[in-house]
Amino acid sequence: MLSMHSPNRRLGRASSGPTGQLGVALIEALISILIFSFGILGLIGLEAQAINFSVNAEDRTRAALYASEIASYLWVNNTVTPPAAQKTTWNNNANLINNPQGGLNAGTATVTLTPTTTNSADIVITWQQQSDPTATVVTQQLTTRVTIPGL
User: Fold this and answer.
1) How many CB atoms lie within 10 A of CB 108?
2) Is residue 118 part of a domain?
3) Nearest CA to 67 among 140, 125, 121?
4) Least confident stretch, 42-46, 101-105, 111-115, 145-149
5) Smallest Cα–Cα separation from 110: which of 143, 78, 62?
6) Looking at the DSSP assignment, which residues form a beta bridge with residue 147?
7) Residue 99 CB neighbours (<10 A)
8) Which terminus of the chain has fewer CB atoms gathered within 10 Å of its CB, N or C?
C-alpha cells in the first residue's frame, strides 16, 4: 500500500508552523551568549579593580606600620632627631628590595623636624604603587606628625 506522503517529503521542510520562524531560536541563543559574555567580562574587570584596591590598602597599612614603628622609637628615646644609622635602618626596612617580606615598592622613610616647633617631627613614608608595568608610575605618600611632650 502506498502512502500519501513520500519519504522525501518527510525529510524536507516541516510543514507545520510558520516558515518565517526558522533559525530564530539559534539567533536568540547567540544573542544570549553575547550578553552573558559581556557580563562575565564586566565581572573580570571588577575583580581586577578589587585586587588593585586590595594591594593599595595593603601598602598603606605597611606604611602606617612603619610610621608607627618610627614614632614609637622617637617616643621611647625622647627625641625627634634620630641618629643617621637608625634612619638607614628604617629606609632599608621600608624598601621592598632590602625587605622582600614586608617592604614597599621603592619605599623610603624620612623624619624631618617641623619648622615651627622643637618637639615635633614629620614622618613621611613614600612608595610607588605596584601596578601594571606598562602603566605610569604612581607615587604614594603617608605623612604622620609626632610630637614629644616635654622637649
Assistant:
1) 14
2) yes
3) 125
4) 101-105
5) 143
6) 120
7) 14
8) N
Mean pLDDT in residue range 71-89: 90
The answer for residues whose C-beta is within 8 angstroms of residue 75's C-beta and 6 or more apart is 146, 148
Tell me the per-residue pLDDT of 131-150, one tens digit each, with 9 for 90 and over.
656 667 788 899 999 999 87
> Which residues lie across from 127 on neighbouring strands?
140
- What one-letter code names the amino acid at 79? T
Determine how many CB atoms are found less than 10 A away from the CB of residue 32.
10
Higher pLDDT, 9 or 57: 57
Placement of cell 608607627 in the chain: 68
Structural domain contains residue 9: no
Residue written as grid cell 612603619: 66
Residue 50 lies in a domain: yes
Domain count, the chain: 1
Span between the terminal Cα atoms of the chain, in Å: 119
